[in-house]
Design a protein that fits this description.
The protein contains 6 helices and no strands. It is an all-alpha fold.
């Protein structure tokens, strides 16, 4: 019984030491130092200078190995940590997809901005709920936002170049000076949206809804506008030269076309049929 108690106490003591990594390492180092110094003591005494020179040569080699290997391991660990964080941010966006709540919207935006800080801008945001969020100055170039809800949001100077916005809801959002060049926004809802000085050059805006939208000084050159709804939209100083699929019937419903720029053919039709919209 006494022997069992002593054995148990010894095991507990050993385990307590093992649970302390610094103490364990120190004990192992001390034991190894005693063994190595015991075997090399005679070399110290017989020819210290030669032995010391050899020790220093080995020390330099060891330092070089530590430096090279240490830097490589550090780089690999750092790179692995970054990749893991990026994967986590993307996984969280997937978790919040289709969840229509303020929490989901704000947490998704947080993950978007974190991905931006890591240089990631092409993000899968299909069917994401981003209503009433602040996406000002965010880079979403090349992202996929098809069928997402970004209504009542702020996207001032946001980069949406070549972004997919098909069937996306941007109603009553502020996209002033946003970059939507080459964006795919067929069927998108821009109703009551602010697109002042927005860049929409060569964007696909087929059957998009611009009802009551503010498109003052916006760049719509070369856009695909077949079936787009401009009812009560303000196109003051907008540039629609080279727009494809644009008809007089669409422009008749606009609130104003004053100082807007058009190709000569359609401009003549406007002046003939609805001169009141372009002014005298």
């Amino acid at each position: 019984m006494i022997k069992e108690n002593k054995k148990k106490k010894l095991e507990e003591y050993i385990n307590s030491i093992i649970e302390k990594p610094i103490l364990t390492s120190s004990i192992v180092l001390a034991i190894l130092a005693v063994i190595v110094l015991s075997f090399s003591l005679k070399y110290y005494l017989e020819d210290f200078d030669l032995f010391f020179a050899q020790v220093m040569a080995e020390a330099h080699g060891m330092l070089f190995d530590i430096a090279v290997i240490g830097i490589l391991i550090f780089w690999l660990n750092k790179n692995g940590e970054v990749r893991q964080r990026i994967r986590t941010y993307k996984d969280e966006i997937n978790d919040f997809r289709l969840w229509e709540s303020e929490e989901a919207a704000f947490r998704t935006v947080g993950n978007i901005k974190r991905l931006n800080r890591h240089g990631i801008n092409e993000i899968n945001l299909v069917n994401c709920h981003l209503s009433r969020t602040n996406l000002n100055y965010v880079n979403l170039g090349g992202s996929n936002l098809n069928s997402s809800d970004i209504s009542n949001a702020f996207l001032i100077e946001t980069n949406l170049q070549n972004t997919r916005l098909n069937q996306t809801n941007l109603e009553n959002s502020n996209l002033n000076q946003a970059n939507l060049k080459g964006a795919y926004a067929s069927g998108a809802n821009f109703k009551d949206a602010y697109l002042i000085k927005a860049q929409l050059e060569n964007a696909f805006l087929i059957k998009s809804n611009f009802k009551n939208a503010f498109l003052m000084e916006s760049n719509l050159r070369g856009c695909y506008l077949t079936g787009a709804d401009f009812e009560n939209a303000s196109l003051y100083k907008a540039d629609l030269r080279g727009a494809k699929g644009l008809t007089l019937e669409q422009l008749t419903k606009a609130k104003t076309l004053y100082l807007a720029q058009f190709d000569e053919e359609i401009l003549n039709q406007i002046k003939t049929n609805i001169p009141e919209l372009v002014g005298k």
